Amino acid sequence: MSQTLTIVADIFAHPDQVERVKSELQKLIAPTLAEAGCLQYDLHQDNENPAHFLFFENWESRELWQKHMSAPHIEAFGPATEGAIAEVRLYEMTKASAED
Question: What does CATH list as the number for 10-92?
Fold first, then answer.
């Protein structure tokens, strides 16, 4: 059995663009959850730093996640948030605990 792929995406908005970025990130949730292979797609906002957002995602495979990365709603996110995002960090992870 293949392991699921976990993605942690840290998104840092410019402080004066928090609401714009949040709104655009929220628009990604429904279409992503409808994609093949998406098991979990949760958006979080840092309680101490509202400009820091985090997506916690689980995918059936890396191939399906890569397909997601070229989906129309993901590609539209860039132009919709141009100049509003300070930094994005993506982490591809696999569960390391012995239990499944």
Answer: 3.30.70.100
